[in-house]
Amino acid sequence: MAEIAGEYLSKGSSVYVEGNLKTEKWKDREGNRKQLTKVIGLKLIMLGPRKGKKDDDANGPDDIPF
User: Fold this and answer.
1) How do residues 17-50 score in pLDDT, each as one tens digit?
2) pTM reported for the whole predicted model
3) Which domains does the chain show, CATH number per domain?
4) Residue 44: exposure state from Cβ atoms within 10 A (0-12, 13-18, ≥19)
5) Are 54 and 16 spatial neighbours (Cβ–Cβ below 8 Å)?
6) What region does 52 belong to: left with phi over 0, alpha with psi -120 to 50, or beta?
7) Half-sphere exposure of 63 toward its Cβ, with a 13 Å CA cutoff?
8) Which parts of 1-66 fold into alpha helices (H)?
């Protein structure tokens, strides 16, 4: 899924991601607490036009299917 997103999406692209969050906590060598939250995507829907496509009409609110 990440490879597809990297190929077809760019910064600012509208997407819907469904899945879970996974949080990991640990202490580093100096004793500082660290936390990492990962998005485990199970479903990805691209909402806007394809990367590089110049279609201003496709960015309007009328394109939302719901």
Assistant:
1) 999 999 999 999 999 999 999 989 999 999 977 6
2) 0.53
3) 2-50 (2.40.50.140)
4) middle
5) no
6) left
7) 12
8) 2-8
